[in-house]
Amino acid sequence: MTPRQPSTAPGVAPRTAAGHHPAAGDRSGRALPRETGQDRTTGPAAAGAERDPIRDAGPIRDAGPIPGTGPAPGIRGATSPADHHSPVGVTVWQGEIGPDGGGAEDQHLLSPAELARMGRIRSPLAARRWAGSRAALRRVLAERTGQAPGELRIARGACPHCDDGGHGPPVLLDAPVPVTFSLSHSGAHWMVAVAPGFPVGVDLERERPVDLDAVTRRALSAREARTVGAQGAAALFRSWTRKEAVAKAMGTGTATDLRRIDTDPAAPATARTPAGWRVHSLPAPPGLHAALAVPDLPDITWRVRTAAPVGAHQLTG
Q: Which residue of 3, 92, 197, 270 has the fewest C-beta atoms within 10 A of its own C-beta?
């Protein structure tokens, strides 16, 4: 996720565990959605190697109350084989960017803003993977809406706290059906969550050495810190992916103090947050952690589908 200020987090320390860009406004002063090449995992102007959102977490900030939906009784199962077209179903697509992913055929689908964003990434491998993840997003949204992938207009909405259009939730302009979505990618792997109009967030992270003390101070609640202290890396990445997923679903990103999003990492499959979100740890390839966040309301179901490798230009599963 992208901080508004340059990173001030320290680098890797000895104690480790393995494993507001202003937008144009209308005459009311409210920010308008704008077409963009950003996603939550790469940021507005990061260059060079792929960014590490945990290591490079920005300064703690507070953008006001955490928006939520309010608590609702009952959790209808930790996993749910929802029909992909169910009016309350979330589909999570997952896939891998193959050797041909992010090449000319994928780049042909991208908007000028996305191509410009790709051009600012100095690492050729990171740039191709970023392009591959954006092409995968477009194919998933095209499959849902019946539109052509290269004709989709993906923009940013206004932040629900400050109306800033630089870090608000992604939106699909001129969609013929209600659709909300969230994209995450880590290395060669990507995930896209698609919902029929309600907020949704997904996050995917590769397990790697991180500074436990720094992350605990900057991002974890007291309960999360105790669990991570006892369980180590698995609990840390379970907590972090859940926090990122909730922040994406809220549409505020790291503008909210992540310590206030308590995700109960001791709960291995599903947990509730005090602000009215439900988080699910998702199945992921070995060495990766993933989470989905949806409003804590009854009858919201979800399932995971696997896509063909990006570069094969098809969805399966």
A: 197
For 303, the enclosing helix (H) or strand (E) is strand 301-306
Write out the two tokens for 305: 């589908």
Nearest CA-CA partner of 158 in 145, 171, 168? 168
Query: Tens digit of pLDDT for each residue in 21-79?
Result: 223 333 233 233 434 443 433 232 334 445 555 544 443 333 333 333 322 222 222 23
Secondary structure tally for the chain: helices H, strands E:
6, 13
Three-state SS annotation for 225-267: HHHHHHHCHHHHHHHHHHHHHHHHHHCCHHHCCHHHCCCCCCC
Q: What is the pLDDT of residues 97-130, one digit of tens each?
A: 988 899 999 999 999 999 999 999 999 999 999 9
Predicted model pTM: 0.74
Q: Which CATH architecture has domain 32-38+73-306?
A: Alpha-Beta Complex (3.90)
